[in-house]
Amino acid sequence: MSYIDELVSVLGKEKVLTDPSERFVYGADWSPRTPDEFVPPDVVVLPRTTRDVQRIVKVAYAHEIPVTAGGGLTGMLGGAVPIHGGIYVDTTTMNSVVEVDPKNQTIRVQAGATLQEVNDVVSAYDLWLPHQPESKWVSTVGAAIACDNDSTFGVRYGKILNCLLSAELVTGTGEVVELGHRKAHFTSSGYKLKDLLAGSEGTLGIVTEATLKLEPIPASRRVDMLVFPRMGAAVDYLSRLLKAGLCLEAAHINCRRRLNFYTHSYRLKYGKDPEIPAWAEALLAIAFAGDPQVVDQQREHALRIAKEFEAQLVEQREIVDAWWASKYTLDFEPFRQKWPDSQKQKKFGAADPGVPVGRLEEFYHKFVEVAEKHRLEIIGMNAYLEHPSSIGFSLSCAVFVDYRSPDEVRRFRQFHDELSKLAVAFEGTMSTFMSDTYQKAPYMEVEHGSSLKYMREVKRLFDPKGIMNPGKKFPREVRKE
Amino acid sequence: MSTNLEEFREELEVCFGTSCGLCERGCPVYQTMKIKTLSMKGRNRTMLGVLQGKLDITPALVQATFECTLCGNCDRWCALKNTEHTRSFREYLLKQGVEPMKEHSSLLLSIRNYGNPWFQPRSARTKWTRGLNLPKAAPNQQEVLFFAGCTSAVTKALNRGLVASTRLLQRAGVKFAIMGTDEPCCGSTLLRVGQTEEFEKLAEENVRKFESLGIKKIVTSCPGCYVTLKKSVEMNGSKIEVAHIAQETATLARDGRLRLNRSSEKMTYHDPCHLGRLGGVFEEPREIVKAVAELVEMPNSGYESRCCGAGAGLQSAFPKLSRDLASKRIAEAKATGATTLVTSCPFCETQLRTVPGIKVTDLMELLLDAAEDIEKSASNNRRQPSG
Predict the structure, then answer these.
(1) What ipTM was predicted for this assembly?
(2) Which of A385, B157, B258, B317 is least surrounded by CB atoms within 10 angstroms?
(3) The domain A343-435: what is its CATH number?
(4) Is A329 exposed, middle or buried, given 0-12, 13-18 or 19+ CB atoms closer than 10 A?
């Protein structure tokens, strides 16, 4: 019996898709690739329960078939693209809520629920899941964990790992294990195996359920933008705000070029460029949230301090609203959605390194240099504060990629690799929100050196046959008989 | 009108390049089935694969193409003409020699032979007019035509909506005529299942008929007819105005030509896809509901209204999926606390009635009741001796 026949027999015909047209659409994500680069899996399965996932992995284990799990397929670097074929597990069919515990501020949910689906449910309890990437309508809980993607509200709440209390995992042998500390908000017991899941890309197994910490929905929010003569000045200012004891909810530094991308909807609506002073080289967006009087007080204090940093408040609310809409509310006029409009010819592609705080400007210049060397049109750099009440940031170094040109896609990949390696030379990290995927797999030792062998051992422990999302993080190992 | 799939290649590539998937959240079919092939992003990818010669036309591909109500929700967050891609792809498949879905073939046969998709004799079209004394359109005798539409005319349970529509027009003193047994099918079904050439022929013929009668304005109570007739007159360069009955009666009420009784009953309004998202008529039906009752909105309303599941041949070819969509919509309506779900489309009305749980009413029946109620209470007041 072939493994596909076995899948049909253990899951039922309706949960197994084999027609080429059904498999084809699962062969690409959001990452820059040419329209020819579809890598369809050999079979797509639609599990409903953890038991279904266990059955799938057991069949795969017996036959040594690659298993790639995916959610919204909006990854920016091919993390859930089944590059070695095999079985694609579409987890979005697993989106049930298991339990909401409003008092403990937690939800137990199947991993295929989108982040928005979680918020649709918990908003009735005046709670929300603050891990909010721009792809929240499509990105699933499982994918957020596996990719360790970014969040608009990182400076207050951190990213998904700060919300994750416990997760159920189907390992590469088909065993079901719970990693974490149930509904307790933290623990000092045992090894923190749950933390291994953040950014694991499904290489250790498939997350099937998760217990997530929720936060009360703030009563109000105020978003502002300030311009600075240098990016470094914006960083210093943020540091000062944290020292002052202010509770920032969001903090994003855009270089001047990057704002042009975000104000695309402004230009569409008003037919002109936003009024940003010629001297401004950095634009900082900050948000405060909470009770209105607290928010007002914090905001006023923040704006008062701004004067010490040569900053100027952006008075045109439309610019701020356009940026905020693009980051969070996604509330564009119908037919004015930013992506296709702004990316008709070329699409957004990025490297996602992290560098020491004091070297932001130096790295910015390197980014421009590397992008120009590879003849890529620069979108710009964005530094997002993503660690609770702390100055550390992730970087999005973005360029436009003509995805119809194989040569330009190749040059983009070279640009990505070069910047990733450069970040390590800057005493930083290669990735802060996209993970490694197959892209960084060939040079993982640049960052991880001798610790890489321990990572391989961890991988073997969870996935002895190397069937779980092979080719991601490590090149696929061909087993010797 | 007829489109070649190749025209959309750039858009299909843009969707591939973007791959944001924001279309998934509002898609009633995807949200029920959770299969990416059935999301708009997936459909665009499938079409691209066919254009690239990577995919053969298989039964599964054909089935997926027709598993869509063309409700237009995917266009909400996107600059691309997604709904038109899907409609065009149906046309493309038929041109490639794909047999129409068997359920759709019979609809087409009926339109050809009976002038309606429901195998009813032409005489069935006028049953609803009995006792109403409605004049039949004759050359240059009237400016306004009331267009009943096949579905409401030949379905007994929907006749009341037509009766209410025409009574309201009469009550407000609007001079109009009907075409009776000569009323043609608007061709909406042909268009949506991919029979574009047949539709174009029919549309041209229809507009010629309307012009020869000297019609200046067509008022219809069917949203499918509304958007299709609008398209037909535009395509054929005609200046005939097309209005939905909700627009017409909302104006009459606003102008004081319809007096209405208002109750405190909580009601919710379901936007039919063809009237709302595809026809752009959101406010007038709400104006009517607010004039006669208390309107409570469902979370997905207006532009983001969720399809009832009846459209674009889904009800006939995929009844289970279609019913699942209706159940979801009814659950949303019930959760508002409303006692009545009001809609203004014969398809939505029939479809939503298949799921028990809330009273489903046609907007015009509701309006007529409110108009008659105020008259009754006025005459009761007159009968009562003064104090």
Answers:
(1) 0.92
(2) B157
(3) 3.30.300.330
(4) exposed
